[in-house]
Input
Amino acid sequence: MNHSLTHLSSGQFAKLMGVSKDTLFHYDRLGILSPEIKADNGYRYYSMNQMDVFKVITILKELDMPLKEIRVYLDRRSPEELITLLEKEEQLLDVKIEKLNKMKKVISEKKQITASALKINPAYIGLKDMSQEALVITEADPYTNDESFYESMLKHDKYLDIHNLDASHTVGWMRDTKAVLANEAFNYDYLYTRISKDSTDANFIKENGTYLIAYHTDGYSSVEKTYDRMLKHCEREGLKLLGFFYEDVLLDDLSVRGYEQYTIKISVRISK
Output
């Protein structure tokens, strides 16, 4: 009998589908996809029509559907069952796409921040007009040691998680200008995460205006030196501090080794 017009050998079918013959044998043993014809001489032939079935099996596998579940579906297949199955997998795929898009945002932002950090002049201090930003803030624990930083971060992450907020932006820290000017003990007041300006979840607005910006490249333990440098600059130029200082970490453990090599951007709104 000549099967060449409507059927493919195991080798031909495997090559066309981009898999090994062993994969086809495995599917046959599991009862997922068997050759349409098994000749007396041992040759196995797949119908051209089985290509679509194989493609669906491949898609379901890529969606992490176990082979056993695929077999159960195929055993009771029907148009109605297919619609139900595909609706379910479509929903799972939407969730995965959303997750992947968030991951892409994290990667893209991190790449952009790191690239900009390589171009900064550590000695720079100057003014820049900045747009309004929507923030989600949580109160920081009083500073006692590194453990208090950790606890503050946990609380902030938990808040974002509970409210199902996009956490793709890097977390920053805020210090009240009044406390800094009063030379109070070093402490952070809030943690913040930027969110879309169109979001209704913001609980704080970073106002637009002119901001004094400086960079600190010697790690957290000596960050007060840059605060002192900014205060002296304001005194010298007759600038008045408004609101909060904002700290953004530009280079962290993903690109440098340890706190003492971090690069931090500090900004504060001013009036002349």
Notes: The first strand starts at residue 7 and ends at 9. The mean pLDDT is 90. Residues 7-77 form a domain with the Multidrug-efflux Transporter Regulator; Chain: A; Domain 2 fold (CATH 1.10.1660.10). The radius of gyration is 30 Å.
